[in-house]
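To close the section, here is one more complete example, presented without commentary so you can practise reading it yourself. The ligand is iron/sulfur cluster.
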Amino acid sequence: MNKLIEKLKKEHLLTREELIELLKDDSINEELYKAADEVRDKTLGNEVHLRGLIEFTNICKRNCMYCGLRRDNKIIKRYRLTEEEILDFAEKAVSYGYRTLVLQGGEDPYFTVERLVPLIKKIKALGVAITLSIGERSLEEYKAFKEAGADRFLLRIETTDKELYEKLDPGMSHENRKQCLRDLRTAGYEVGSGALVGLPGQTIESLADDLLYFKELDADMLGIGPFIPNEETPLKDCKTGDFHLALKMMALIRLLLPDINIPATTAMETLDKNGRTIALQCGANVVMPNVTEGEYRALYKLYPGKICIGDTPAHCRGCVTGKIRAINRVVSDGYGFRDNGSGPKKRDENGKRVE
Ligand code: SF4
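Output:
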């Protein structure tokens, strides 16, 4: 076995130079994927956690260059679900057996604490774990959502290259992004982050920095998405991210952080028709089927070629379950917290997990 992969499998840590060496060497890909799959199996077993995704608003005040929801995109038809619609989708998702619901949206100022807190409480009363993916907020807001019943929060760093981040996310501060991730920890969430792979101007060196940042953050969930240029954004003519580089990042994350939750992302399946199945066999243990209904699925267009936009939530549930069973894995009936317990693990004042 490649010495670095062997070391990573045993120690779950490599230096920046060693990570760069693995990221640059494509001759080790199959070995790396196999090692990540073995570590996933040994640490977490064969369960796959399903998270039902409700895309509740495609309105966003930000202007990220790579994203179809950016505010300067005047072509996209905007929508904002009503509380009744969100609750209806949530109830249906629970009836399909989902134990976690993810509320995802652009940074939509309409959804204030006053509006979101009662909604979170009503969804929580359905007996599910709740993940929020609603962008940058203040510590007070994060605390209010947590108190209302939210358990997890996804906030991708996208890239740890500060200069690149601030160029691609105009008006946003990389330092504030990192502060938000610290605040989420302070507020007691299971913290999810992640990166886009293949952004124009991104280097292999910066991908290695992303990996070390995730390790230092001790993130509880990490999602990797290949960059897919959207024709309604300024990056429309840029090159699509490499599927295998994204897969390698995901496999390396599994080896660095053996017990965390890693989704097989839909963006992977946009680039390869078996993308999510492949990802599940290279370290991933989570799938996030869409439980939003109707035309909203197509309107939440972060990138083109998004899969399953014409399907119903019932169809997606069956399809994903079939894919999971076909590779001899099982759908978990638990909440899928990092520690397999009933909630986020306690942390000390430095963010380190305590027994
Ligand atoms: S990436 Fe997020 S914050 Fe940026 S424009 Fe898209 S939805 Fe808004």
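Once you have examined the tokens, check your reading against these statements. The two ends are 34 Å apart (CA to CA). The mean pLDDT is 95.
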